[in-house]
Amino acid sequence: MTRISLAAAASVSTLSLALAGCMGTGNIPSASTPITQSEAQMGAEAHPQLLNEFGGAMSGSHAQYVEQVGKNIAVQSGLGNARDSFTVSLLNSPVNNAFAIPGGYVYTTRQLVALMNNEAELAAVLGHEVGHVAARHSQRRQATAQRNTLLGAAGAILSGVLLGNSGLGQQLGQAALQGSQLLTLKFSRSQELEADELGIRYLNSAGYDPRAMGTVLQSLALQNALDARVQGRDNANIPEWASTHPDPASRVQTALAKAQATGVTGGVTNRDTFLTRIDGLTYGDDPSQGVVEGRRFIHPDLRLAFTAPQGFYMINGTRAVTINGQSGQAQFSLAPYNNDLNSYVTSVFAGVNEQQQIRPQSIQRTTVNGLPAAYGTARVASGNGQVDVTVFAYEFASDRAYHFLAITPAGQTSAFNDMFASMQRIDSQTAANVIPRVVDVVTVGSGDTVASLARRMAYSDNQIDRFRVLNGLTSNEGLSVGQKVKIVVRGR
């Protein structure tokens, strides 16, 4: 969760219509209509806000490399006839995500780049997103987006089983999930396959191995499954607010078959070049945005920490941290503060549902680990019965407060009691000890094995699984002396 200006929380309704994110058959255009003036204007207006929503654009050698590859693949689309027609950004986000918007703006997160294993896979992902733009998928879905804005649609994700599909459920969810990962349209399966096919076409025309689309989708599917195991979820589908690549596993074989149908048996991968160029890339959470370590969230800049309940997992977004579990869901965020905790809690409740004012039965004052705090709960009727909405706020300074907004089935607010009680300030030494993880590219030596290299991974759990998924290795695949591989270590 980045420490952001509240003024930056601008409306996303206009932006939502422009985004073409995700990561057949249908009519696949043989040549794309060039970028129009209106599309260029739309993209230029959305671009700064989008960067803000997704952690900002990175600079330096890693970003320059992604830009180079992205422009090379984007010109294959026919949307623009020169590399300068496109803006390619590497985003400082720990989420596996990539997207593009009309006007020639293409994006990928550093986390997704770290999952890739060669340059062709990077080109495949960016080509897939450009394919959405070339096929004008966002325009096709614009009418739907106008009827059901992205944040409203995302509300159903949080409300889920707890709130059903009622209007109230969507409004509650909307207020609780205004994080950065909500800004992409979910495309239909046919549109995803169409974008895959277009991306494969661009790979061919650029001279890359067309199989890269299938292999990067396979890596993403394996990462989804690993995340589910690590987080204790029952399924391997990444929550929609955390990724815009729905169901990659089902698209792998289709993508590989499409690549085979091209008749191209070779093509460039540039594996070693790619690995050398991404060496040192930040992996996982950036401490400036706070970090999730197991069930604990620590923000060294804001000097705070809290612990999620047992059995829950967290996703750190640009604007908020979401906490998810079977017995409830919550968000940790901030709002304007005027040195009055009671009015702060009331204002958070007021923002939950614009159509129906929600008020707590009462607001209680307390102290949590030395922090002044206030909380209240409101019982609300929903499509599937009743739910409890709880706001728990903490004062850190006369002009700064933070809060949890939690939604649970009626009578089960206690599921979050331990988390509410865990909020605390951290000292400067604790903050200084938060060190980022980075990708370290190493060359396999004569005595190295999967197990020995995996032990160097900066994780206390699932080291071998993490190493294999990170390097696109199957469960039985070994290593060769001289081969370059990625490990994740603590930076300096």
Describe it.
With 492 residues, the chain is an alpha+beta fold. It has 3 domains: 6-141 and 185-283, no CATH class; 288-432, Mog1/PsbP, alpha/beta/alpha sandwich (Protein Transport Mog1p, Chain A, 3-Layer(aba) Sandwich); 437-490, Membrane-bound Lytic Murein Transglycosylase D, Chain A (Roll), CATH 3.10.350. The protein contains 18 helices and 18 strands. Helix 5 (119-134) packs across helix 10. The chain is globular, with a radius of gyration of 23 Å. It starts with 12 loop residues before the first helix and ends with a strand. The relative contact order is 0.12.
Overall domain count = 3
Rg, Cα atoms, Å: 23 Å
Q: What's the β-strand tally? A: 18
Strand content: 15-25%
Short account of what is shown:
37% of the residues lie in helices and 21% in strands. It is of the alpha+beta class.
Please tag this protein with its features.
18 helices; 492 residues; 37% helix; alpha+beta; Membrane-bound Lytic Murein Transglycosylase D, Chain A; 3 domains
Indicate the topology.
Elements (H helix, E strand, L loop, with lengths): L12 H4 L3 E3 L14 H17 L7 H14 L12 E5 L6 E4 L3 E5 H6 L3 H16 L2 H4 L1 H6 L2 H14 L3 H10 L12 H18 L5 H20 L20 H10 L9 H8 L3 E2 L7 E3 L2 E4 L4 E4 L5 E4 L4 E5 L2 E7 L6 H10 L13 E5 L2 E12 L2 E13 L2 E10 L7 H6 L1 E2 L2 H5 L4 E7 L6 H5 L8 H8 L13 E7 L2
Parallel strand pairs: 2-4
Antiparallel strand pairs: 1-3, 3-4, 5-17, 6-7, 7-8, 8-16, 9-10, 10-11, 11-15, 12-13, 13-14, 14-15, 17-18
